[in-house]
Request: fold
Amino acid sequence: MILVDVDENKVNLLNLARSPIFEPGLEELLIKSKERLHATLDFRAAIDGEYPQEQTKINY
Reply:
């Protein structure tokens, strides 16, 4: 799965299997899924995937 964000710090944290927000259990899920997740600043990488999804902006 490709994750896209405009915040380079969040992208870097996600690629290290670290959550940029506090959510109980999220970091453990990121660690388990590390080989299947890739975060990027490049929205084109997500568009080139089989099933592109759009997420609305979440302020936290």
